[in-house]
């Protein structure tokens, strides 16, 4: 289960310490960037079962594609996912870990919460840094993603260590600081899809993300903490009730 985050959010991200891992340098851009498939899959049992199997594939990109697709299921499809998992047992430990993250995302993505105008990614970003500090992180331009909050759009489509360098729908607008990224996302409305230009593992890709609504907590840390704790408990309870017993039964049989 992803760690519960209890620190204060700003509209798009939290200003925290610098990233501890070196961000990749921007690659050469001779070819058109690859676009990540962000389509949500239908709740078809055969397709979902194949995607569950792909979580254990030797090819890392195939595993990642399966994770993204499964996280796109809606909460009404949880019973289909459970049935697909049951038919796919036994699963490797690595599949179980990713599957719990997937269930968490599916459960929380459909939850209703208090909102305020503006788009929201649900990511935490580094603190603002001076221009002469950027080379220390190997960062020519862009903003590095420190962490993602379960249940929001970024948890499905972005990764820790991604470097957001631009937004296709906002050409010419620099994304060189957390402040600029926050402003760019707030400029859009919840439900609007923005295509982010992202450097991931030294590859420039395009990631279409339909923005969530910005949570409204009135700047109160206790309200935010309670929000995240309640959501984490909901996801935990769903996993413990509907999915964890499948593995206990399989382990007993084995």
Query: What's the multimeric state?
Result: single chain
Relative strand content:
15-25%
Overall domain count: 1
Between the first and last Cα atoms, what is the distance in angstroms?
24 Å
Q: Write out the CATH superfamily name.
A: PDZ domain
Can you offer a commentary on this structure?
This protein is an alpha+beta fold and 254 residues long. It has one domain: Pdz3 Domain, CATH 2.30.42.10. The chain is built from 8 helices and 10 strands. A 5-stranded mixed beta sheet has the order 2-9-8-7-5. α1 crosses α2, α1 crosses α3 and α4 crosses α7. The N terminus is likely disordered.
Give descriptors for this structure.
single chain, 254 residues, alpha+beta, Pdz3 Domain, five-stranded mixed sheet, three-stranded mixed sheet, 38% helix, 17% strand
Topology at a glance:
Blueprint: E1 15-16, E2 34-35, H1 45-54, H2 60-71, H3 78-88, H4 93-109, E3 115-120, E4 123-126, E5 143-144, E6 147-148, H5 153-157, E7 163-167, H6 178-187, E8 193-200, E9 203-210, E10 212-215, H7 221-242, H8 244-253
Parallel strand pairs: 1-4, 2-9
Antiparallel strand pairs: 3-10, 4-6, 5-7, 7-8, 8-9
Helix pairs in contact: 1-2, 1-3, 4-7
């Amino acid at each position: 289960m992803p760690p519960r985050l209890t620190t204060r959010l700003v509209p798009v991200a939290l200003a925290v310490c610098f990233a501890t891992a070196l961000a990749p340098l921007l690659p050469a851009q001779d070819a058109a960037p690859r676009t990540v498939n962000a389509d949500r899959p239908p709740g078809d049992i055969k397709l979902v079962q194949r995607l569950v199997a792909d979580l254990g594939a030797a090819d890392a990109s195939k595993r990642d594609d399966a994770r993204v697709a499964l996280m796109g299921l809606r909460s009404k499809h949880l019973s289909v996912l459970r049935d697909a998992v049951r038919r796919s047992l036994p699963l490797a430990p690595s599949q179980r870990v990713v599957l719990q993250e997937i269930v968490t995302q599916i459960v929380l993505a459909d939850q209703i919460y208090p909102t305020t105008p503006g788009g929201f990614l649900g990511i935490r970003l580094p603190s603002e840094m001076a221009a002469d500090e950027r080379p220390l992180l190997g960062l020519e331009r862009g903003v590095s993603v420190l962490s993602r909050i379960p249940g929001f759009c970024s948890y499905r489509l972005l990764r820790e260590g991604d470097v957001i360098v631009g937004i296709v729908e906002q050409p010419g607008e620099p994304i060189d600081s957390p402040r600029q990224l926050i402003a760019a996302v707030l400029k859009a409305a919840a439900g609007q899809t923005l295509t982010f230009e992202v450097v991931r593992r030294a590859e420039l890709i395009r990631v279409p993300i339909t923005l969530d609504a910005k949570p409204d907590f009135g700047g109160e840390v206790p309200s935010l903490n309670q929000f995240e704790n309640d959501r984490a408990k909901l996801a935990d309870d769903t996993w413990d009730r509907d999915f964890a017993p499948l593995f206990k039964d399989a382990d007993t049989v084995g």
